[in-house]
Amino acid sequence: MQITFPTRPHIALSAPGQPTLALQVQHPSHRANDGTDVLYVHGSTFGADMSIFFRFDGRSWADALNDVGHTVWGVDWAGYGRSERYPQGVTAPVGRMADVLPQMHRVIAAIRARNGNRPLALVAHSWGGGVAAAYASLNPQDVHALVLFGPIVPRTPTGSIGPAAPLNSHHSVSQWAQYRRFVEDVPHGHPQVLSEAHFQTWGEAYLATDPTAATHSPPSVWTPTGPAADVQAWRSGHWLYEPGCVEAPTLLVRGEWDSLCTDADATTLLEALGSTHKADCKIESATHLMHLESQREVLYRHTNAFLQHITTEESL
């Protein structure tokens, strides 16, 4: 078993008055004629190093995309990974979609300045799926395809649940808290979706993304609460973007055991999107973190097949 924490260099994207962002790229060994540029949009608690570029047994999702000729880009939004942190002393949630969309403009402009000005495919996880869809709704010229896996979708509130408690700017996420996410949705009697050995190494690398992790008890990654505030809004029935304005062909991928993106959620999102090309894929024995789980290669194959299909259609 081999797990490798990536050490590739990053491109520092700076702008006056804006946080400096860490952008990474992994090129294929040979670019196929139908290869495209793929930007990974991470979820609420960990960035690109811990997801698209993280190698289990010597292989990452970026490697799988490279295999078929795609160039893979990954960014850490402000507050995550190698990017600049938000200032201390802020009391309101930071890193909400409204904060991240201008960052995404900078990132995509930087990529298009380097790739011959070609539109991108966005591959996005969880809360990041809403960010990617929102960007596509506002900038259709930049996005030629969307892959949303485990996206968070508005739900109609039920019962007499009161308003959610206000959030501070950050919260701490421990290794144990991340471990629970890999086990809480797995039905009793089924094997783990991520081995203890794999999680141990991933968890240690996760803590290493925050230089201040050891100052918390237990050791934890200091994480923006903006995504949690967005999720509160979605779960209260509010769309934070106009789904009908999303024109890009879209693949929605979700795990069979993903309680955060259910069959009903998938139906809600697919019916709301304005794209005329929409597909839904449910992967067996997978949860919300399927890109790190034992079924990750199935996710890789479905993503590659969808992007290949879209590219072939565009060339006809």
The string of secondary-structure elements, in order, is EEEEEHEHEHEEHHEHEHEH
End-to-end gap = 43 Å
Q: Can you summarize the main beta sheet?
A: 8 strands, mixed
| Low-pLDDT segments | 1-5
Mean pLDDT: 93
Helix content: 25-40%
Structural class: alpha/beta
Q: Nearest-angstrom radius of gyration?
A: 18 Å
What is the strand arrangement across the widest sheet? 2-3-6-4-7-8-11-12
Measured by DSSP, the beta-strand proportion falls in 15-25%
Q: Describe the global form.
A: globular
> Tally of extended strands?
12
Number of helices: 8
Kindly describe this structure:
It contains 8 helices and 12 strands. It has 316 residues and is of the alpha/beta class. The protein has an 8-stranded mixed beta sheet, with helices on both faces. The radius of gyration is 18 Å and the shape is globular.
Condensed summary:
This protein has 316 residues and is of the alpha/beta class. It has helices at 61-67, 97-112, 127-138, 175-183, 196-207, 226-235, 263-272, 296-315, and strands spanning 3-4, 11-15, 18-26, 37-41, 55-56, 71-76, 120-125, 143-149, 170-174, 220-224, 250-255, 278-283.
Write the layout of secondary structure elements.
Elements: E1 3-4, E2 11-15, E3 18-26, E4 37-41, E5 55-56, H1 61-67, E6 71-76, H2 97-112, E7 120-125, H3 127-138, E8 143-149, E9 170-174, H4 175-183, H5 196-207, E10 220-224, H6 226-235, E11 250-255, H7 263-272, E12 278-283, H8 296-315
Parallel strand pairs: 4-6, 4-7, 7-8, 8-11, 11-12
Antiparallel strand pairs: 1-5, 2-3, 3-6, 9-10
Helix pairs in contact: 2-3
